[in-house]
Amino acid sequence: MTQTFGPHSTTDEVLAGFDLRGKRILVTGASAGLGIETARSLAARGAYVIGAVRDLAKAHRATEPVRVAAAQVEAAPEGGFELVALDLASLASVRASADALVAVGRPLDLIIANAGVMACPQGRTADGFETQFGTNHLGHFVFINRLASLLSAGARVVSLASSGHRFADVDLEDPAFERSPYDPFTAYGRSKTANILFAVELDRRLRNRGVRATAVHPGVIQTELGRHLTPELIERIMPPGAAATTLVFKSIPQGAATSVWSAVAAAAEAVGGRYCEDCHVAAVTDDPNSRMGVRAYALDPARAQALWAKSEELVGERFPS
C-alpha cells in the first residue's frame, strides 16, 4: 500500500482493500472507545478478534457492533469475535488470562495493547504498584511476554502510548512515588514513556523471529479514558495562553486509525521499534513546546533495557530474550 494517510484518516480508510481472513488478533480494552472501534475494523476485514476486557458483562453489551461486523464478512468461517477476562491491575488475572490462551495454543498474528488509565488519583494495583504504571505498563508487560510463544512469524505488537509521554521519563528509582509527591500527569507520562520503551526492547528481542513491535499515539479523543480529567487538570496541559476549546479532537475512528495503520498497513521494518502518530512514523524532538513527535528518552535503547530489567524485578518474573 502506497497511499498516504494522516490525522484525519479513519480505520476503514486505512484498512480498505485488506483481507484479514485467517488472522488471529488480540485487542486489550475492547469494551469501550478505541478498543471497540479497533476490534470492529479488524473483524470487518475477516480477522478473528479476541477482546481482552476487565468487565465481561459490560463488554458483551458494548461490543455488539464488533459481532455484527464479523458476521457480515462473507466466506470467512475462521473469522469472528470472542471476549476473555483480563484485569491489568491484577497480575493474578493477567497470568490466568495469558495462561488460558497459551493452553488453547492457537497462534496470534497481532496484539494491540489498547487498554489503559489516565491521570487518575493516586492509588495502587492489587499487587501494590502505582495505578498508572502498574496498569498501563506492568500489566501489559507480563501479559504480552506470557503470550510471546503464540506470536507467529510476521506478527506485530502495537503498544498504545501517548503524546503524554512528554510529561515525564520513567523513574526507575521511585516508580511508586514513595519518595516524591504524586502528580497524576507525571504518573501518566511515566507510564506512557514505559509503553514506548517496552515496544523498543520487545522489538529488539523478537525481530529475529520476524515479530515487530511499535508504539503509537492515537491523538486526542473524547473517550472513557478521560473520566478523571477535571477542568483544572485540562488547563494544566494546555499551551500557555490557550483555551481548552483550542484542543483538536479526533473522532474515535480517526483515533484508532494509527493503531491499525501500524499493525496492518505500514511496512513492518518502517514501524518496528518506532513511535507513530497520525498514521506515520513520528520525528524525534526535544522541543518543550512541541505537541508532536517523540522525546529521545522514550526511544533510548539503553533506557528500554533498564526498564525491562526493572519490570522483571518488580513482577518477579524473567522473560527470555
Question: Could you describe the 3D structure shown?
Answer:
The protein is 38% helix and 14% strand. It is of the alpha/beta class and 321 residues long. It has a single domain, classed as Rossmann fold (3-Layer(aba) Sandwich), CATH 3.40.50. An 8-stranded mixed β-sheet has the order 3-2-1-4-5-6-7-8, with helices on both faces. Helix 7 links the parallel strand 5 (151-160) and strand 6 (212-217). Helix 2 (33-43) packs parallel to helix 4. The model has no long low-confidence stretch (mean pLDDT 92).
Describe the structure concisely.
This protein has helices at residues 11-15, 33-43, 56-62, 64-71, 91-104, 131-147, 184-206, 231-236, 252-255, 257-265, 268-271, 301-315; strands at 24-28, 48-53, 80-85, 108-113, 151-160, 212-217, 275-277, 280-281. It is of the alpha/beta class and 321 residues long.
The CATH architecture designation is 3-Layer(aba) Sandwich
Total tally of structural domains: 1
- Sheet/helix structural class: alpha/beta
Morphology: globular
Can you identify the CATH superfamily? NAD(P)-binding Rossmann-like Domain
- Catalogue the unreliable spans: none
What is the CATH C level class, in words?
Alpha Beta
Task: Give the beta-strand count.
Answer: 8
Largest β sheet strand count, sense and barrel closure: 8 strands, mixed
- Rg, please? 18 Å
Element string (H = helix, E = strand): HEHEHHEHEHEHEHHHHEEH
What's the tally of helices?
12
Average of the residue pLDDT scores: 92
**Biggest sheet: strand arrangement:** 3-2-1-4-5-6-7-8
CATH topology: Rossmann fold
Distance, first to last CA:
32 Å
Portion in beta strands: 5-15%
Helix coverage percent of residues? 25-40%
